[in-house]
Write a structure and sequence with these properties.
This protein is mainly alpha-helical. It folds into two domains: about 130 residues, no CATH class; about 240 residues, no CATH class. Helices cover about 70% and strands about 5% of the residues. The protein has 17 helices and three strands. Strands 1-3-2 form a three-stranded mixed beta sheet. Strand 2 and strand 3 form a beta hairpin. Helix 8 runs antiparallel to helix 13 and helix 12 packs across helix 17. Keywords: Membrane, Transmembrane, Transmembrane helix. It comes from [Eubacterium] siraeum DSM 15702. This is DUF3810 domain-containing protein.
Length: about 375
């Protein structure tokens, strides 16, 4: 009886799978694997840490190295290709649907197969090249210092320290007639940023190893409308940046995106790593970018904590080049105050929350906490 029941059940299962579309043989296992890895990473930090330091670097060294050879952003080109193919596919599907009486159900099943398989592929690649890394140990944890809360006085001390270094850096750079930085012809942005990250990797093993080339995005104007300075492209493992953004911000942005390629996905940590890389660089333009960017975040935090009067007093000591830079930066982004920017910010906020950064876009503010904790640790050594 038992043997007969087993044979019957086996035959039923085989018959069931024979009726399923063949594309489900790929889609279902791939989806379940991706989902299982995501849940495992979210609930087991040790697994996420092991994956990000053992498996993920293999993809950086292969996929990232291949895409690095190209002089353009492969991810951007693939995005355009997907959009074009999707548009062409919709047109042909509509035409065939109208003309294909008696074959419409089969056509719709094919379309469903393509859509589902594409969505599952995106989910799987995102999981392997990015998603798991959100759950790894933080940079501060693996680097041996503790992030603490801070007092208004500690924040003020940090602002004074940063401003002093920003003023010193401003005195070493060349500016144009507007007193703002132009990097054109002065540095090889990609090489200097990789050099700075490799130099930082000598201090922190988690940042050592291969770095692909950073890529300027062709549609940088569109990035400005969405108020995006840079983007890690997980599907091709590339660091992309906005070529139209103010020049002073580019070194910091590139180092920020390169830090994502080491598996540090949190925005506050990527900012902090970029701060360490730029300020620790031997290139004066990277130093300037690091200190000015740090000043923006720290001074804004001081404004919120102590008010406009204290903020104005601090900034009254800023070098004229820094004042001009911040004014120019503000004027640049004002041109892109549109509903598109608001939508992009909301989408980014939602994405960060979905990856465990529960305070969404406010997570960028924790960069200040990291700087204070780090500088306190440095002062105590």
């Amino acid at each position: 009886m038992i043997r007969k029941a087993v044979v019957t059940l086996s035959a039923t299962i085989k018959a069931f799978f024979k009726k399923l579309p063949k594309w489900l043989y790929y889609a279902v296992p791939a989806f379940l694997l991706s989902l299982a890895l995501t849940l495992l990473a979210k609930n087991t930090a040790d697994f996420a840490q092991w994956y990000s330091t053992t498996i993920y670097p293999f993809f950086v060294g292969t996929v990232g190295r291949i895409s690095s050879v190209l002089p353009f952003s492969l991810c951007e080109i693939l995005l355009y290709a997907v959009i074009i193919l999707a548009a062409v596919g919709v047109v042909f599907t509509v035409i065939r649907f109208v003309k294909g009486k008696g074959k419409r159900k089969k056509l719709l099943m094919r379309v469903l197969a393509v859509v589902v398989c594409f969505a599952v592929s995106v989910f799987m690649v995102f999981t392997l090249f990015c998603g798991i890394n959100y759950n790894r140990f933080t940079f501060s944890e693996v680097s041996g210092f503790t992030v603490e809360t801070y007092t208004a006085q500690e924040l003020a001390d940090l602002c004074v320290y940063i401003l002093k270094n920003a003023n010193d850096a401003a005195g070493k750079i060349e500016t144009d007639e507007t007193l703002t930085v132009s990097l054109d012809g002065k540095i090889d942005l990609d090489e200097e940023c990789k050099k700075a990250m490799n130099r930082l990797g000598e201090r922190y093993d988690s940042l050592s190893g291969f770095y692909p080339d950073a890529k300027a995005v062709i549609a940088s104007e569109g990035m400005s409308y969405m108020k995006i300075l840079g983007m890690y492209a997980p599907f091709t493992i590339e660091a992309n940046y906005n070529a139209n953004a103010p020049d002073f911000a580019k070194p910091f942005t590139v180092c920020h995106e390169l830090s994502h390629l080491k598996g540090f996905m949190r925005e506050d940590e990527a900012n902090f790593i970029a701060y360490l890389a730029c300020t620790g660089s031997d290139n004066v333009y990277l130093q300037y970018a690091g200190w000015v960017y740090a000043l923006i975040y720290a001074a804004n935090a001081l404004y919120s904590a102590a008010g406009a009067e204290i903020y104005s007093e601090l900034m009254s000591y800023a070098d004229s080049r820094i004042v001009a830079e911040l004014k120019s930066n503000s004027e640049y982004w004002k041109k892109y105050e549109t509903p598109v920017a608001a939508v992009a910010t909301t989408v980014n906020d939602t994405y960060l929350k979905s990856q465990g950064q529960s305070d969404g876009k406010k997570s960028y503010g924790r960069f200040v906490d990291l700087m204070i904790s780090y500088e306190k640790m440095q002062a105590s050594e």
